[in-house]
Design the sequence.
């Protein structure tokens, strides 16, 4: 039996390895870089690099790679070996501080959204010492940021680190106002719960749509879907269990804090939740988790689907981003306190979130926009496309009491000095938690549930950190310059609640009434990526990013362009696959079945001249009609794709897709699924939903 505690992080160059292997002064300097952000000098870099190399070689590494996160949301790596000539026809293994700190991947083919066209063509990677290096597949992985030579950010990590620094600055200003001088740093903490589907690889390989798009474009509903709701937290099947065990072990070795695993609502759907850590490490770890989920699945003859909506009529997969703020002294700033004083501070942070989410709903929505996630958001199982905050009735009542300057329901006592009431202790695990809310306060953290299972969590966290930092900075400006702190604080809290309470909604987010109500409140309902993404570059949002140096106008414009291009590209590929499957598989199959039916009728007639052939007649009539309809729609789709105008603006292009392609694809699917329901299974060209969902 292996010792898990010992195995955990055994392939990570973490604190304890650093402490053991680095000279004390080097270790202390590196720690300073990690925790306080002081730049690292090159001599220290050489010592660290050498220690890392020796350690990595012991772990089987022959290569090193700068691991980075280009704007498309996947990770990228280029491997170099440690070998170096020693002049006698032999090699030695070398790794310098320069190689550790800076890399120059040939990154010209990563999308730059036009950023590099006007400037320097090359980009470079820079070591991020705040996320540990690790060994995987015989290579030393060094987490890095990716920028262009003229300084544009070309990745997701750099803006995330900037937003973390930003929120640190403004949260500290607030803490100082409350007399707290011992805290040195505040950082956002994140725990990202990851949902996924696990299906049999052989079965999945038989479907072109799963292979090329990661989701099914066709498929009639199985007789038993998730209606019985017997899968959620159900017992885990042996093959899945073996997979999960293997996955945990692989993740633990890499220092990923995989904690909880269980079956999800849909058949073949599961979830993995890690313990929370800093936003930066959580993001790196989530990228790693998604990758390892896929590779471990291969080993088990399985296929792990991370698409947001692999199956129609079956719940899709998301990622719940649990977010809070922590001090370096280990205090959770969203934990309601025990004293009125602590509560005032808690309420101020809570108000910063309320105000930020209300004022920047569109940014949060845009941060989770993708063609895949559009399939999921707003279909009564996942959060709607409308952003609102769930606080629970208790906290909402307290806020309303504060807003109106009255005592809260007798349960609490008023504190006259601060005027803020003592909060009741929250039940962390209260069962009536609202599962339909896109952004829920769950006792001592917020859970943002709109992120798609396939997306990087970097963007949503960049937005969250930035908007909350913006509000904290406004609050700090007001409070730092006031004469009566308690009075100003009270008024500030009451005013914020009054102005932003429209964002609070504790009801059922799936109900049609909420859509109407939200509209009345003036909340956004950005249904598709094509509607949401242009908000990234609205003046209000450009100003926000510029003010806080998170993105320049050009940088955010490039992200906007890349995301919209990607949206169109996904839809383009999907429609191509749809055409291919329709023409080469579905139509031939149904034609064959029609032929079989017709031949059956003929031979029946030949033997029994006045026999009833109405069954064959009805089926042939139905299927002939459906397949003719299908063919017409297929031709229409083909025609539409071939005539997509050459829009220079990706936003116009995305509108064309939204308005002209998606609807035809839906019609094609509906007809094809009806054909499937009425066709001999033996003849059907690919595995059905039942075959797939119950394959493991
Ligand atoms: P669930 O939401 O499924 O009921 P939990 O509330 O226990 O489960 O936690 C879900 C996720 O929230 C876990 O990944 C956990 O690490 C994370 N989490 C808990 N506390 C915090 C926090 N203060 N900051 C960020 N994430 C947190
Ligand atoms: Mg959760």
Sequence:
């Amino acid at each position: 039996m292996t010792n898990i505690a010992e195995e955990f992080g055994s392939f990570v160059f973490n604190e304890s390895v650093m402490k053991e292997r680095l000279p004390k002064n080097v270790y202390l300097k590196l720690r300073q870089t990690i925790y306080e952000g002081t730049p690292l000098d090159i001599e220290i870099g050489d010592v660290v690099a050498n220690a890392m190399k020796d350690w990595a070689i012991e772990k089987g590494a022959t290569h090193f790679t700068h691991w980075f996160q280009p704007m498309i949301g996947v990770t990228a790596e280029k491997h170099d070996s440690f070998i170096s000539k020693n002049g006698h026809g032999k090699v030695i293994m070398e790794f310098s501080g320069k190689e550790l700190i800076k890399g120059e991947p040939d990154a010209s083919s990563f999308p730059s959204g036009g950023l590099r066209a006007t400037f320097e063509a090359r980009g470079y990677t820079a070591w991020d010492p705040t996320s540990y290096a690790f060994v995987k597949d015989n290579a030393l992985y060094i987490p890095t940021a990716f920028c262009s030579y003229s300084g544009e950010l070309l990745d997701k990590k750099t803006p995330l680190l900037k937003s973390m620094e930003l929120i640190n600055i403004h949260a500290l200003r607030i803490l100082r106002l409350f007399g707290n001088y011992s805290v040195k740093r505040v950082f956002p903490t994140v725990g990202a719960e990851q949902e996924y589907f696990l299906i049999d690889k052989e079965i999945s390989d038989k479907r072109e749509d799963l292979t090329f798009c990661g989701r099914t474009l066709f498929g009639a509903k199985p007789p038993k879907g998730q209606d019985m709701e017997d899968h959620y937290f159900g017992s885990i099947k042996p093959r899945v269990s073996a997979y999960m065990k293997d996955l945990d072990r692989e993740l633990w070795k890499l220092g990923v804090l995989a904690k909880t695993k269980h079956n999800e609502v849909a058949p073949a759907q599961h979830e993995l939740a890690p313990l929370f850590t800093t936003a930066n490490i959580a993001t790196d770890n989530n990228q790693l988790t998604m990758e390892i989920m896929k590779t471990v699945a291969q080993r088990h003859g399985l296929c792990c689907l991370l698409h947001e909506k692999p199956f129609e009529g079956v719940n899709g997969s998301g990622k719940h981003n649990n977010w809070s703020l922590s001090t370096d002294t280990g205090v959770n700033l969203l934990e309601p306190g025990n004293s009125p004083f602590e509560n005032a501070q808690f309420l101020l942070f809570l108000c910063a979130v309320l105000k930020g989410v209300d004022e920047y709903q569109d940014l949060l929505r845009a941060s989770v926009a993708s063609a895949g996630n559009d399939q999921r958001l707003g279909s009564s199982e996942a959060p709607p496309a409308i952003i609102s905050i769930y606080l629970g009735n208790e906290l909402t009542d307290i806020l309303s009491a504060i807003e109106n300057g009255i005592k809260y329901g007798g349960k609490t006592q008023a504190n006259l000095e601060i005027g803020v009431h003592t909060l009741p202790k929250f039940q962390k695990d209260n069962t009536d938690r609202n599962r339909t809310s896109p952004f829920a306060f769950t006792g001592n953290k917020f859970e943002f549930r709109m992120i798609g299972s396939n997306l990087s969590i970097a963007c949503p966290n960049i937005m969250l950190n930035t908007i909350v930092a913006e509000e904290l900075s406004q609050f700090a400006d007001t409070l730092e310059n006031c004469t009566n702190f308690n009075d100003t604080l009270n008024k500030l809290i009451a005013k914020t609640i009054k102005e932003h309470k429209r964002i609070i909604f504790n009801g059922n987010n799936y109900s049609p009434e909420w859509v109407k109500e939200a509209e009345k409140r003036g909340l956004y309902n950005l249904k598709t990526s094509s509607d949401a993404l242009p908000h990234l570059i609205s003046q209000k949002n450009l100003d926000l990013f510029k003010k806080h140096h998170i993105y320049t106008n050009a940088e955010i414009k490039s992200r906007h362009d890349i995301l919209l291009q990607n949206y169109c590209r996904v839809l383009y590929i999907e429609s191509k696959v749809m055409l291919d499957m329709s023409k080469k598989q579905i139509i031939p199959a149904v034609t064959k079945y029609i032929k079989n039916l017709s031949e059956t009728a003929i031979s029946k007639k030949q033997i029994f001249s006045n026999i009833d052939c109405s069954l064959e007649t009805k089926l042939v009539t139905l299927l002939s009609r459906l397949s003719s309809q299908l063919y017409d729609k297929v031709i229409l789709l083909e025609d539409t794709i071939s005539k997509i105008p050459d829009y220079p603006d990706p936003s116009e292009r995305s509108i064309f897709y939204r308005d002209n392609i998606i609807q035809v694809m839906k019609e094609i699917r509906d007809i094809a699924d009806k054909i499937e329901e009425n066709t001999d299974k033996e003849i059907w060209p690919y595995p059905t939903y039942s075959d797939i969902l119950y394959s493991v």
In short: The two ends are 27 Å apart (CA to CA). The first helix runs from residue 4 to 7.
